[in-house]
Design brief:
This protein has about 80 residues and is of the alpha+beta class. The protein has two helices and five strands.
Length: about 80
């Protein structure tokens, strides 16, 4: 699976919160299989939009969707994970 280039604001956020190394590890799992158990992937409501999230660590998640036209996964944003 191909990953679209990250926006600079996402890269900056990852660096600011010391998440870059963990994010890259999780992104490699995502490239292989977005349902990998380490990712704890969830589909968000409303499900029709196709936006999903995966776990970076216990505190942060990345929101993404698969763009079928470009055949790429696009990372939308990194968020705090509130439970």
């Amino acid at each position: 699976m191909n990953i679209a280039p990250l926006k600079q604001e996402i890269i900056d956020y990852l660096e600011k919160h010391n998440l870059t190394k963990k994010f890259i590890k999780q992104l490699n799992f995502l490239k292989i299989d977005f349902r990998h158990p380490s990712l704890h992937t969830e589909i968000l409501e409303p499900k029709e939009r196709g936006i999903r999230s995966f776990r970076i660590n216990l505190d942060y998640r990345a929101l993404f969707f698969f763009d079928p036209e470009e055949e790429k996964i696009k990372i939308l944003v990194i968020t705090k994970h509130y439970q």
